[in-house]
Amino acid sequence: MPSRREILAFSAMIPFALAVRPARAAGLPLLGLRSDGRPAGETDFPGWRLVYFGYTHCPDVCPLGLQTMAEALDALGPLAEKISPVFVTVDPERDTPEVMKDYVAFFHPRLVGLTPSSDQLAAMAKAWRVKYAKVEVGEGRPYLMDHTAVLMLADPDGASAGRFPHNLGGARLAEKIRSAMEARS
Prior knowledge:
Number of domains: 1
CATH topology: Glutaredoxin
Low-confidence stretches: 2-26
CATH superfamily: Glutaredoxin
CATH class: Alpha Beta
Distance between the termini: 40 Å
Shape: globular
Order of helices and strands: HEEHEHEHEEEEH
Number of helices: 5
Mean pLDDT: 87
Strand order of the largest sheet: 1-4-3-2-7-8
Radius of gyration: 19 Å
Largest sheet: 6 strands, mixed
Oligomer: single chain
Structural class: alpha/beta
């Protein structure tokens, strides 16, 4: 039977062990219909994932975030091949896979648009720690979506590897991604 001292020593290590244990990929899901119309599967986004939640009718923040993402992918060169770039809409009502296909192609050829159902979006928002809300702006005017404006990096094991401002700039984001990848290799 272990002594009280051994039990206390072991108990003291549990929080540390849990803290360094990476979240599984299921903890940071990517669900919905891809911009090519196919349902997203577990193997659709291999390796590292660079993810941005936004919407196509966004007047300013989302285009800047996606441009930052595209510039970072280009700045990373061959290293970018290890990254799956994904744009998840927080406005599935308007952002169909067809709309997403045209929109993401404007920013980068490798960028995949993802249109989740309302339930899938709620599950992803909780897992990725993203907030979103529909904002009515007046009669006869299209609504806007308030949302978290952060570029998120997840490692191949599905653990969060970084959250970066949408306006960081492509070169700076590439440096942050490179550092995160080196630290976990």
